[in-house]
Design goal:
By secondary structure, the protein is of the alpha/beta class. It folds into 3 domains: 3-35 and 171-198, no CATH class; 39-164, Alpha-Beta Plaits (2-Layer Sandwich), CATH 3.30.70; 205-453, Rossmann fold (3-Layer(aba) Sandwich). 48% of the residues lie in helices and 14% in strands. It has helices at residues 3-12, 14-34, 50-55, 58-75, 79-89, 95-100, 122-143, 173-198, 205-212, 244-259, 281-294, 311-314, 323-327, 333-336, 357-361, 364-376, 391-398, 413-425, 474-479, 494-500, 502-518, 523-531, 535-544, and strands at 39-49, 102-105, 112-119, 154-158, 163-164, 216-221, 269-273, 299-303, 337-339, 345-348, 378-382, 401-407, 430-438. The strands form 2 sheets. It has an 8-stranded mixed sheet, sandwiched between helices. Strands 1, 2, 3, 4 and 5 form a 5-stranded antiparallel sheet that branches. Strand 9 and strand 10 form a beta hairpin. The longest helix has 26 residues, at 173-198. It is rod-shaped, with a radius of gyration of 45 Å.
């Protein structure tokens, strides 16, 4: 992993980092509240000769007192001093406990002893410091007494009362909170880095290409519009509101990448699949078909998921008869091929759910059906997931290649590698990967992020382009009169009406009546008409005329 990956991980888990920092601060603050505050008081004692004050001889007295300072500094730690201080304070604490709360130092070059005492309140700390000075003075008189009155020639004098601070010296709230925050921040950063290093989910297109060796041919942004039953996106959307433009642009980009995928031998039959269910393969297949058809190219969308078909519901078409019925020999292909509201787009629904989907999809009849369709149009097949069942692998072997759909932030590289490996073992061609549900904003968004800027989106108030031709509605007019053409003039079979239901039977009857009046309908003729709607098709038709 590179540095940018770790920085991206910190951005991705910034909430966790902030939360852990706050937890560290809160923990430190709670610890401060649970501690007993300790206050500190300081008192100074001057070591001075008693004769100096009474008889003169200041120089000699001061020099002699200075020689006693180290001795008195050592006497402070005596147990007898602590016991005497306890008697003065009338404390129940042991001498050792009292001595632990008193510290005495001698500032360099002075005859002063600095007593620092700690207690649970400022007054107690001041009293303890003063008591220790008095106890030391009495001990000195007892040990070094030379006069008849029992006093020592050198004494210790307290010039003023102990100085007390109202702020406790322990715990230090500011330091504790700072340390807690730093520790929480460190734990949060460590958590984010560990999660980033161990994250095996698909995130970025560059990482997918580097790790899997498969090109990313498209990135589809996440949108609430794709979560409904009717998951079709209008390819003509140019408004940036609601993310419709981002979706339309994503499928247009995918369409363009397919065009330039193999210029010498472009794929005509493409399987859309995914490692597991829920990655959005059916949505990608339907919208890619719409985008291809919007470009003027005849497209046949085949629902190859014979276990859980969804194409018919998404395209708002009857799905009782379809591919399984054709493969079983109950109906002809032309009988169940349906037109859609999108010009140039035909749909072959899954039909009845068979007990043996894999055998049907891997049959020679399935190959002939795909070859026949690919002769007249580009074929997009919605296949089942690769890992739960073998249907997707079988269909990829029958087709020119497969596009594998991966969910950003959901699909792991382990699962994706297994899916790609399954296709390679079946000698299937992997055309590329489509990243689905990519966030429009945030750390995992793409570099372009589909951000619509001025100049990219045409003004909705502007009149339509003059290049639009009324011939683009030709196929829609034909679709309103019939739902399925026939191959080579073969008539509609009665089995189709019985299998597909009354709505499909009514549309089939309309087609039969129209065919009787105007002649037999050929699928390749209809596709030819559809292709001539495009500018290049119109030029070819003009040359023939």
């Amino acid at each position: 992993m590179e540095l940018r990956d770790y920085l991206r991980g910190l951005r991705r888990h910034w909430i966790a980092v902030v939360l852990m920092t706050m937890v560290g601060v809160a923990t430190a603050f709670g610890w401060v509240l649970l501690q007993t505050p300790v206050y500190e008081a300081t008192a100074n004692g001057l070591v001075q000769s008693k004769a100096t004050a009474e008889q003169g001889g200041a120089v000699y007295g001061d020099s002699y007192a200075a020689t006693k300072v180290p001795t008195y500094l050592e006497m402070v730690t005596w147990k007898v001093v602590a016991e005497r201080a306890g008697e003065i304070l009338q404390s129940d604490e042991s001498p050792e406990e009292l001595a632990a709360r008193v510290n005495v130092v001698n500032p360099q070059g002075t005859s002063i002893l600095k007593f620092t005492a700690q207690a649970g309140s400022p007054a107690e700390a001041a009293t303890l410091a003063q008591a220790w000075i008095d106890a030391l003075g009495e001990t000195i008189d007892q040990v070094q007494s030379t006069s008849s009155d029992g006093g020592a020639p050198i004494g210790i004098y307290s010039a003023a009362a102990a100085s007390v601070s109202n702020a406790p010296v322990f715990p230090d709230q500011r330091t504790a909170i700072l340390v807690g925050g730093v520790l929480g921040l460190g734990v949060g950063i460590a958590f984010a880095l560990v999660r980033t290093a161990s994250d095996r989910r698909v995130r970025q297109a560059d990482d997918v290409q580097a790790r899997m060796g498969v090109p990313v041919v498209g990135t589809v942004p996440a949108s609430a519009a794709l979560a409904s039953d009717h998951r079709l996106i209008d390819p003509s959307i140019t408004s940036e509101k609601g993310g419709g433009f981002a979706l339309s642009e994503a499928f247009r980009a995918l369409r363009t990448n397919l065009k330039f995928m193999d210029v010498d031998n472009p794929p005509r039959t493409i399987v859309i699949t995914s490692p597991l269910a829920g990655d959005g393969k059916s949505t990608i297949a339907c919208n890619l078909s719409v985008a291809l058809a919007a470009n003027g190219e005849p497209v046949v969308l085949v629902d190859g998921d014979l276990r859980r078909p969804t194409v018919a519901r998404t395209m708002a078409l009857p799905g009782d008869a379809g591919l399984s019925d054709v493969l079983a020999g109950r109906v002809e292909l032309a009988d169940v091929l349906q037109r859609t509201a999108t010009p140039n787009l035909f749909v072959l629904a899954a039909g009845s759910i068979p007990p043996n989907p894999s055998e049907l999809l891997g049959s020679d009849r399935m190959r002939r059906v795909l070859d026949e369709l690919a002769t007249h149009a580009m074929v997009i097949i919605d296949a089942p997931p690769l890992l739960p069942v073998t249907d997707g692998v079988v269909l990829t072997h029958q087709a020119d290649g497969a596009l594998v759909t991966l969910s950003v932030g959901k699909t792991t590289y382990d699962v994706a590698d297994k899916a790609i490996d399954a296709l390679h073992k079946a000698q299937g061609r992997v055309l590329g990967v489509v990243l689905n549900k990519a966030p429009l904003k945030g750390v995992d968004s793409s570099a372009y992020s589909y951000e619509v800027r001025k100049g990219y989106v045409p003004d909705p108030s502007s009149p339509p382009s003059a290049s639009a031709s009324p011939e683009s509605d030709v196929l829609g007019t034909i679709a309103s009169s019939a739902s399925a053409p026939t191959f080579e003039g073969r008539p509609q079979r009665e089995a189709t009406a019985a299998t597909a239901g009354p709505d499909f039977a009514q549309e089939s009857t309309l087609l039969t009546e129209e065919a009787a009046e105007s002649g037999e309908v050929r699928f390749d003729d209809l596709v030819l008409d559809a292709s001539e709607v495009t500018p290049s098709g119109r030029k070819r038709r003009a040359r023939r005329n």
